[in-house]
Design brief:
Blueprint: E1 10-11, E2 16-17, H1 38-42, E3 49-55, H2 59-77, E4 85-91, E5 97-98, E6 101-102, H3 117-124
Parallel strand pairs: 3-4
Antiparallel strand pairs: 1-2, 5-6
Length: 125
């Protein structure tokens, strides 16, 4: 990736764009269009990046999310799909938690993710 391409990266996790704009309130895609002017979004070197942070997802989940998130982002911002990058930061159960307890000690119930993929496949058989 060229250094100039990095100027257009948008970091939703940090709520700040590479332009220094505060993105608080723009975390969901439906509110994103109002966060940037057309010149910021349409610039030739602007290559937005979307990062999804979650427990490790299955390959199928990543494919579905990539298609839907990039399509929606493109529709709202008018950035061509081939100019939008999507990254998945998947965390194993021992690297995430809630309430002071890591998920490896108390896995979340009702969630479909990579950590219980084998379990679900056995139930389906």
């Amino acid at each position: 990736m060229l250094q100039s391409d990095l100027r257009g990266f948008w970091n939703f996790a940090g709520h700040r764009s590479s332009w220094g704009r505060d993105l608080t309130g723009c975390e969901n895609l439906s509110g994103l269009a109002g966060c940037f002017s057309k010149s910021e979004v349409k610039g030739e070197n602007k290559m937005p990046a979307i990062t999804i942070q979650s427990l490790e997802l299955t390959d199928e989940q990543k494919e579905i999310l990539a298609d839907k998130v990039v399509s929606l982002f493109s529709e709202i911002t008018k950035v061509p799909k081939d100019r939008i990058y999507i990254f998945f930061d998947g965390y194993p159960l021992d690297c995430a938690g809630t309430g002071g307890i890591v998920f490896s000690k108390r896995p979340p119930k009702g969630i479909i993710a990579k950590f219980n993929e084998e379990e679900r496949e056995q139930v389906e058989e």
